[in-house]
Amino acid sequence: MKIRRCAVLFIEPREDLGIDWAALFSGAGALSASLRWVALAPHLDRETTIDAAQVAALGAIGQTAWTERADAERQLGAAMVESLLALGLLLDDGAGDGSSNIAARERDTVLREQHWRPLSAAAHMFSRWDGMEVDKGMHFPSFEELVQSYGAPPEPAIERGDSEHAIALPAAQSGPLDAQLLRRYTGRNYDPDAPLPPEVLARLLQRTFGVQLQSMLAQEALVFKKTSPSAGSLHPTEAYVLVRRVPGVAPGLYHYHPLKHALEPMAALEPAAASELARQFVADQHWFVDAPVMVVMAARVARNFWKYRNHAKAYRALMLDAGHLSQTFYLLATEAGMPGFVTAAVNEKVIERAFGLDPLSDAVVAVCGCGVAAAGQTTLELRYEE
Ligand SMILES: Cc1cc2nc3c(=O)[nH]c(=O)nc-3n(C[C@H](O)[C@H](O)[C@H](O)COP(=O)(O)O)c2cc1C
């Protein structure tokens, strides 16, 4: 049997801070710090504490070529090899009897097949939330509290270059886009009963995520043209829709097909279950929960990484693609007379489970939504004066 290291592995010397109560009572410094090695291997989707000997052993086994297990055992000791195989940081080739940790090997294969940049894979996999409630799990400070804690923020605008000789530009002329640009705002007060008309949802989805033109850039390489730009013309962002109140569309989970312009049902939901899922999707940001639809933007990474293999900028491009789509979504919502929202404070793992997405291949980036505004404003919004 042969073994090799997992495809992507980062090892962090993690410092855990705590209160040293004994030192505190004896009047000495009260902060205690302990250090440990943490293995961050994206295919495992969990942090693993290892010891210094395991760190050294991992450095002795490569992640590309296979090594005879017997040779590795002679070099590192059988117990060491066994411990790293059990943790899923070393993987065997599955040949012969006694193959261990098949699950870890399979996840490693999925990771290798996507062509992730290693740092991007780690950043993505270890920044996902599960069960986070932003109000409870993490303090969500007001601007007053922030200023009290940190002082004033860095100034909102800066001068650079020869500011004395700055060239004053003519006032911006009015234009047709102003009707949307100057009315767009992030809605945080949705009418909990108002439906979203199906024709509004249809236009929002088609003009944000739908195909406007198709082009064969090479044999077998079909690309779409959409209303937002996309890195490499690849449009990897898929739209997964949580429908709550759209007449004629049953509450549930759907995938929007950009070419067929159709909602593919993925799971039906009772209204209460749909509401609870919406709450969990946006990490309990109650100001978004009443929106009649939410659209999850998840990047099909293989589509972008097909061209941008192991590329330093590819993950950044996925984030930018979703950002462009969200602005288009906002502007279309504004055109329909409604506020929209986008949030990156989402429970990716809840979303992945709901839609059956594998985070190594379908990267949840953000959630947007829209709906009719409530009569009053209880949560802060930055609206233009009407
Ligand atoms: C990437 C991104 C993430 C955001 N995340 C949140 C969020 O988690 N919660 C929220 O209430 N608003 C969120 N927003 C909305 C911003 O707070 C909002 O754009 C900002 O306050 C300016 O207000 P405006 O959109 O009305 O101009 C996000 C916006 C962007 C672009």
UniProtKB/TrEMBL annotation:
Entry-linked InterPro entries: Bacteriocin_Proc_Enz, Nitroreductase, Nitroreductase-like, SagB-rel_DH_2, SagB-type_dehydrogenase
The Nitroreductase domain, residue ranges: 182-371
One Pfam family from the record: Nitroreductase
Listed PANTHER family: NITROREDUCTASE MJ1384-RELATED (PTHR43745:SF2)
Name of protein: Peptide maturation dehydrogenase
Source taxonomy: Bacteria, Pseudomonadati, Pseudomonadota, Betaproteobacteria, Burkholderiales
